[in-house]
Amino acid sequence: MKQDEIILSIETSCDETAVALIKNGTEILANVVASQIESHKRFGGVVPEVASRHHVEQMTVVTEEALQQAGLTMEDVTAVAVTEGPGLVGALLIGVNAAKALAFAHGLPLVPVHHIAGHIYANRLITEMKFPLLALVVSGGHTELVLMEKHGSFEVIGETRDDAAGEAYDKVARTLNLPYPGGPHIDKLAQNGEPVLKLPRAWLEPDSYDFSFSGLKSAVINTVHNAAQRGETIRPEDLAASFQASVVEVLVEKAARAARENNVKQVLLAGGVAANQGLRKALEERFSDLPQELVIPPLYLCTDNAAMIGAAGSVAYQKGKRADWALNGVPGLDLEAQ
Amino acid sequence: MKALAIDTSNLVMGIAVLDGEKVIGEYITNLKKNHSVRVMPAIHDVMKEANVKPAELDRIIAAKGPGSYTGVRIGVTIAKTMAWTLKKELVGVSSLEVVAQNGKYFGGYVCPLFDARRTQLYTGLYGKKDGQFQAVKEDRLVLRDNWLSELKKLDQPVLFLGNDLDMHKERIFEELGDQAVFGGIADHNPRPSELGRIGVEREPEPVHHFVPSYLQLAEAEANWLAAQKK
């Protein structure tokens, strides 16, 4: 009988201290996330030094909880996987050094994982991946279309030229005086509004898969400003709905075109903004009569977590990818070089 | 008792392995290089040379700061993770106290210091008390000139130690004159063997809650607290 592969995975690239245990690459045995969001709220955003301090406080507690939930000990673990980057360097270093300490203490292989590869592989915890596939990655720091011909191979065919979609959400939320984090608040408001305001869609060149959201963000700010000068009021719900309609339309149309032009079998949604209800609904509608299978992970696998790092880590482990004791946190780690 | 000592709290990186009453391995550098890249290979190499396996350790000792925030977290994270996962004891020792050991036979007061920018120092005062070399003024973050006035009042010789001493030597001499004694180049690096020696003598601490002693809040946190008081 073949022994089960158990990956213990760690993710600390931003403001979540997360540890998971993944069996044979696809089954979640434990997925513990200690969120720091309550601490960062008062600052209106993630403060790197505060995030790093929380990671040190939480690291062993979260690891212990994950092992307890899974009913396992370190003796059962096959390899330790950890987010190498991208992310906040001080935050990454806590996970990386904890992972090295665990692997060294127990003589286990150490597997480095790219954070975005993790977001994409969150989908493998739901259903098997079918290649070639297209991943639409949308998060606070990333907006990318990634083509995968096989496991562990990533080609970025489109990316944002300025702000990430999540950044645009946060900035517009600030304009509307919504609390941090702004994305979910806009999504909620938008559900009670109508997209009545004319806002631009940045299609860029006809054949481009790239994105741009800074023009849209400026248009929102100008619209609010001009209305105030004319003494008019705009319903925040309508503004949110109009902004969201513009972001979602571009994301969905570019993803649909990229899926068709690259003959993919599957389209995967990945990243924190994948929790956005407006985006999920629009993608489901658009792909309902298209041949590509659309996969959208449940919310708890969209935001940062370690289960996704374990899923990506399992594939990397099987392909023989290993880090040595000099592994570092790399804030600008390249996805295509993986 | 077999113990591993780790110090990444400042530019000096130090690893030591102790076995009973002996220091059996020690590695130390004073370089502007990345601790995160270098410390785990160093731990691996020193332990391998000393022929000590992780599971054979009884205790892990970390220099807990003050110092570089990112630096100290690297050593503390490794120490607490190893101690927790191997079910071993954990001890934290002040990074200043380790430097002070280089002057423990000086006879008078010893003042270890790290530059903390904006003419501030991380420092403390060490000396003989109850027959033991220990802290006589606790570690602190302090404005340099306030600290020097405090030391002047002691009216006794003070030995200054630390790799950042050159930045402050002139001002110290101005203020304290002949009361000030300065260590030589071989006296400034914290020795991981001393870290280990102190750590072996101390009571172990709860592992999960062990954190660096930064001696100051994160800047954003300090600003936020100040704004709350307004």
TrEMBL record, chain A:
<dbReference type="InterPro" id="IPR017860">
    <property type="entry name" value="Peptidase_M22_CS"/>
</dbReference>
<keyword id="KW-0963">Cytoplasm</keyword>
<dbReference type="InterPro" id="IPR022450">
    <property type="entry name" value="TsaD"/>
</dbReference>
<dbReference type="InterPro" id="IPR043129">
    <property type="entry name" value="ATPase_NBD"/>
</dbReference>
<feature type="binding site">
    <location>
        <position position="115"/>
    </location>
    <ligand>
        <name>Fe cation</name>
    </ligand>
</feature>
<dbReference type="InterPro" id="IPR000905">
    <property type="entry name" value="Gcp-like_dom"/>
</dbReference>
<protein>
    <recommendedName>
        <fullName>tRNA N6-adenosine threonylcarbamoyltransferase</fullName>
        <ecNumber>2.3.1.234</ecNumber>
    </recommendedName>
</protein>
<dbReference type="Pfam" id="PF00814">
    <property type="entry name" value="TsaD"/>
</dbReference>
<keyword id="KW-0819">tRNA processing</keyword>
<feature type="binding site">
    <location>
        <position position="170"/>
    </location>
    <ligand>
        <name>substrate</name>
    </ligand>
</feature>
<keyword id="KW-0012">Acyltransferase</keyword>
<keyword id="KW-0808">Transferase</keyword>
<feature type="binding site">
    <location>
        <position position="119"/>
    </location>
    <ligand>
        <name>Fe cation</name>
    </ligand>
</feature>
<keyword id="KW-0479">Metal-binding</keyword>
<feature type="binding site">
    <location>
        <begin position="137"/>
        <end position="141"/>
    </location>
    <ligand>
        <name>substrate</name>
    </ligand>
</feature>
<feature type="binding site">
    <location>
        <position position="183"/>
    </location>
    <ligand>
        <name>substrate</name>
    </ligand>
</feature>
<comment type="similarity">
    <text>Belongs to the KAE1 / TsaD family.</text>
</comment>
<comment type="function">
    <text>Required for the formation of a threonylcarbamoyl group on adenosine at position 37 (t(6)A37) in tRNAs that read codons beginning with adenine. Is involved in the transfer of the threonylcarbamoyl moiety of threonylcarbamoyl-AMP (TC-AMP) to the N6 group of A37, together with TsaE and TsaB. TsaD likely plays a direct catalytic role in this reaction.</text>
</comment>
<feature type="binding site">
    <location>
        <position position="304"/>
    </location>
    <ligand>
        <name>Fe cation</name>
    </ligand>
</feature>
<feature type="binding site">
    <location>
        <position position="187"/>
    </location>
    <ligand>
        <name>substrate</name>
    </ligand>
</feature>
<dbReference type="GO" id="GO:0005737">
    <property type="term" value="C:cytoplasm"/>
</dbReference>
<dbReference type="GO" id="GO:0002949">
    <property type="term" value="P:tRNA threonylcarbamoyladenosine modification"/>
</dbReference>
UniProtKB/TrEMBL annotation, chain B:
<feature type="domain" description="Gcp-like">
    <location>
        <begin position="26"/>
        <end position="224"/>
    </location>
</feature>
<dbReference type="GO" id="GO:0002949">
    <property type="term" value="P:tRNA threonylcarbamoyladenosine modification"/>
</dbReference>
<protein>
    <submittedName>
        <fullName>tRNA threonylcarbamoyladenosine biosynthesis protein TsaB</fullName>
    </submittedName>
</protein>
<dbReference type="GO" id="GO:0005829">
    <property type="term" value="C:cytosol"/>
</dbReference>
<dbReference type="InterPro" id="IPR000905">
    <property type="entry name" value="Gcp-like_dom"/>
</dbReference>
<dbReference type="InterPro" id="IPR022496">
    <property type="entry name" value="T6A_TsaB"/>
</dbReference>
<dbReference type="InterPro" id="IPR043129">
    <property type="entry name" value="ATPase_NBD"/>
</dbReference>
<dbReference type="Pfam" id="PF00814">
    <property type="entry name" value="TsaD"/>
</dbReference>
